Amino acid sequence: MPDWSEENKYQGLIVGVDEAGRGPWVGPVVAGAVVFFNHDIHPFLLKNLNDSKKISATKREALFEVLQSEAKLKNLAWAVGQASAREIDDLNILQATFEAMRRAVKALPCLPDVALIDGNRNPQNFPCPSYTLIKGDAKSYSVAAASIVAKVYRDNLMKNMALQYPGYGFEKNAGYGTKEHIAALKTLGVTPEHRKSYKPIAEILAGKV
């Protein structure tokens, strides 16, 4: 479970950064950034923040609501950054993820002193000094909060995309390659939001499927 030990290693404002949406075949990759201005935060967050993939959708949404409430109380700040499917195709998913992370931090109302980035790859030209933290969303409250922000925000984007492109099940699969999604690709075709550089989509466009 996360705690403050990673944040306590550094001075000043610490931002946690994490992403959602590297694996899906469609839609943007989204990065979340969260800065806690103090450690006196809502007990629900202290008890339940964790890697977003280990938490139910209902609890993620509840955590996101509390994070928003705490932001209104000026106990924290959060922001998101995105890189579109076209940018993913142009840059590759890793570089697009890094760009989303840079955008998320730049969108904060303050410039942090240090960024803790989930994973083992450190983006270049970051807005502030940055350090990687493997499984950071299970170690750091800031990174865990960022993972919740990124995941809930992206899931909501995909629910809206499902209204624009019905039949693919984006509201349920978030753009991952489920049976429903694959069947829809074969009958409805590739949408403008699909990542054309991803092998399954490239094969469909090439007529190999």
Topology of this structure?
Elements: E1 14-20, E2 29-36, H1 43-48, H2 57-72, E3 76-83, H3 85-91, H4 93-106, E4 114-118, E5 130-133, H5 141-164, H6 170-173, H7 179-188, H8 199-205
Parallel strand pairs: 1-4, 4-5
Antiparallel strand pairs: 1-2, 2-3
Number of strands: 5
**CATH-derived architecture of the domain at 7-152:** 2-Layer Sandwich
For CATH, the homologous superfamily of the domain at 7-152 is named as Ribonuclease H-like superfamily/Ribonuclease H
Structural class, by secondary structure, is alpha/beta
CATH fold annotation of the domain at 7-152: Nucleotidyltransferase, domain 5
What's the overall geometry? Answer: globular
* Largest sheet geometry: 5 strands, mixed
Give the neighbour order of strands across the main sheet. Answer: 3-2-1-4-5
Distance between the termini: 43 Å
- Give helix % range: 40-55%
**Low-pLDDT stretches:** none
Number of helices: 8
- Residue-averaged pLDDT: 96
Share in β-strands? 15-25%
CATH hierarchy class name of the domain at 7-152? Alpha Beta
Task: Tell me the Rg in angstroms.
Answer: 17 Å
Provide the succession of SSEs. Answer: EEHHEHHEEHHHH
In short:
With 209 residues, the protein is α/β, with parallel strands linked by helices. It has 8 helices and 5 strands.
